[in-house]
Amino acid sequence: MIFTETPLSGAYLVALSPHSDDRGWFVRTYDKAAFAQMGHMADWVQMNHSLTRQVGAIRGMHFQHPPHAEIKLVRCIAGKVFDVIVDLRASSPTFGQWFGAELSATNQAALYVPKGFAHGFQTLTSDCQLIYCHSEYYAPEHEGAIRFNDPKIGIDWPLPVTDISARDANHPLLIPSFTGLLV
Ligand SMILES: Cc1cn([C@H]2C[C@H](O)[C@@H](COP(=O)(O)OP(=O)(O)O[C@H]3O[C@@H](C)C(=O)[C@@H](O)[C@H]3O)O2)c(=O)[nH]c1=O
């Protein structure tokens, strides 16, 4: 398990180390001790799994407000996605910046998303499945989101958008009075 910090501090790409043999492979996807060395102490309290059918579909950019701000560990187990995070931490020198990486069933990479980040993705193949570990329970009354195409953030999505929920298409743009999440 190799942790590579992204340009947004505290967010890591996690490379796994599969053991391959004639039958296929075996891979450890979570290791409490290894994650603790990277600084992760929380427990995962919820796991979610999604399927997105169309190439070019976008889900995001989602987060939970404090006191339900959450850490996520995201992995793609079918297909390939461009996974994106946006730093919304009030005290962060990279507030408002985004980072994206390909996660796929083939590269087996995971993205560790700290509290205070919005998260979303675009499918690069059909029938993408993502698995999430969450450090907080789903708290719909604390759901927050920002618009995937907010010009202030300027995420460079690789494909034209082919599918998006009405809710995700209409999330608010960042307004000047929003100075970030206190996480
Ligand atoms: C996120 C979530 C949704 N739901 C419900 C609400 C709704 O009826 C249905 C679908 O929800 P959504 O449209 O929000 O699903 P989706 O757009 O896939 O939401 C996910 O998007 C990605 C980008 C993330 O980062 C995830 O944490 C999560 O927010 O599932 C739960 O019951 N529990 C949950 O934890």
TrEMBL record:
<comment type="similarity">
    <text>Belongs to the dTDP-4-dehydrorhamnose 3,5-epimerase family.</text>
</comment>
<feature type="site" description="Participates in a stacking interaction with the thymidine ring of dTDP-4-oxo-6-deoxyglucose">
    <location>
        <position position="138"/>
    </location>
</feature>
<comment type="pathway">
    <text>Carbohydrate biosynthesis; dTDP-L-rhamnose biosynthesis.</text>
</comment>
<keyword id="KW-0413">Isomerase</keyword>
<dbReference type="InterPro" id="IPR014710">
    <property type="entry name" value="RmlC-like_jellyroll"/>
</dbReference>
<dbReference type="GO" id="GO:0008830">
    <property type="term" value="F:dTDP-4-dehydrorhamnose 3,5-epimerase activity"/>
</dbReference>
<feature type="active site" description="Proton acceptor">
    <location>
        <position position="62"/>
    </location>
</feature>
<protein>
    <recommendedName>
        <fullName>dTDP-4-dehydrorhamnose 3,5-epimerase</fullName>
        <ecNumber>5.1.3.13</ecNumber>
    </recommendedName>
</protein>
<feature type="active site" description="Proton donor">
    <location>
        <position position="132"/>
    </location>
</feature>
<dbReference type="GO" id="GO:0019305">
    <property type="term" value="P:dTDP-rhamnose biosynthetic process"/>
</dbReference>
<comment type="subunit">
    <text>Homodimer.</text>
</comment>
<dbReference type="GO" id="GO:0005829">
    <property type="term" value="C:cytosol"/>
</dbReference>
<dbReference type="Pfam" id="PF00908">
    <property type="entry name" value="dTDP_sugar_isom"/>
</dbReference>
<dbReference type="InterPro" id="IPR011051">
    <property type="entry name" value="RmlC_Cupin_sf"/>
</dbReference>
<dbReference type="GO" id="GO:0000271">
    <property type="term" value="P:polysaccharide biosynthetic process"/>
</dbReference>
<dbReference type="InterPro" id="IPR000888">
    <property type="entry name" value="RmlC-like"/>
</dbReference>
<comment type="function">
    <text>Catalyzes the epimerization of the C3' and C5'positions of dTDP-6-deoxy-D-xylo-4-hexulose, forming dTDP-6-deoxy-L-lyxo-4-hexulose.</text>
</comment>
